[in-house]
From TrEMBL:
Membrane topology: Multi-pass membrane protein
Name assigned to this protein: Glycine/betaine ABC transporter permease
Keyword Transcription assigned: no
Compartmental location: Cell membrane; Membrane
CDD domains named in the record: TM_PBP2
Upper lineage: Bacteria, Bacillati, Actinomycetota, Actinomycetes, Micrococcales
Domain ABC transmembrane type-1: 27-208
GO cellular component: plasma membrane
Length: 240
């Protein structure tokens, strides 16, 4: 308990507001890397995932590509890109690595959201005269949005935890305090910075969980809430 008390004392110490990297600035840098990387990944993965889900083509390639991207060690990729592009573009090197990490989850959420739609719904939309573009934007995108947000949620959690390694190439973020604490053998600093990373992850997870519920279309939410639960059948009495 004393260790956790020391960690919280480190977090709320007035010294965290001064120094070469004040704590609020480190948190801002951490969030900037996270949201910037996820945004770039979304701009790449969402159109590709929607195209796969809408046309039904390229799914096997996307699954293989996502699996290969997940297998790449992020720290090794950051260091490799840093060595290739040089110290001037170290921020870009880190962002590229985080984008590669975020793409698989967003891509899977994008095309899985379309694949989860009942085919009878698509057939009904065609039957009333909707064009392919109208089906995409008025049927598939709204119904697939919850799973897409789920993919973005997963990617964000992965990135916010992995951004701590950006310190290895001289960038900021909360990882700066963890690496510095290891060098100084300051357990309170290491634990305090780790707690802040966990708090950020939980806050972002809660935010996306709420957003995931909000984007559920009203008709789907109402139908789900009205669906009666199956009644449990009474067990026949056994003769003693």
């Amino acid at each position: 308990m004393n260790l956790f008390a020391d960690a919280f004392a480190w977090i709320f110490s007035p010294d965290r507001l001064t120094g070469s990297l004040p704590l609020p600035e480190a948190i801002a840098q951490h969030l900037a890397f996270t949201f910037g990387s996820v945004l770039v990944a979304a701009l790449i993965a969402i159109p590709a995932g929607w195209a796969i889900g809408h046309t039904g083509r390229g799914r096997e390639f996307a699954v293989a590509l996502s699996g290969a991207a997940r297998a790449i060690p992020t720290l090794g990729l950051v260091v490799l890109l840093y060595l290739l592009v040089g110290v001037v573009y170290k921020s870009q090197a880190a962002v590229v690595a985080f984008v590669i990490l975020a793409i698989p989850s967003i891509l899977a959420g994008a095309y899985a959201g379309f694949e989860a739609i009942d085919r009878s719904t698509i057939s009904a939309a065609r039957a009333v005269g909707m064009t392919g573009r109208q089906i995409l934007w008025k049927v598939e995108v709204p119904l697939g949005l919850p799973l897409l947000i789920g993919g973005v949620r997963s990617a964000t959690l992965q990135v916010v935890a992995t951004v701590t390694i950006a310190t290895y190439v001289g960038l900021g973020g909360l990882g700066f305090y963890i690496i510095q604490g290891i060098q100084l053998r300051d357990t309170a600093q290491i634990l305090g910075a780790s707690i802040l990373v966990v708090v950020l992850a939980l806050a972002l997870d809660g935010l996306f969980a709420l957003l995931q519920r909000i984007v559920v279309p009203r008709g789907v939410a109402a139908r789900t809430s009205r669906t009666p639960r199956p009644r449990r059948q009474a067990q026949p009495a056994t003769a003693s």
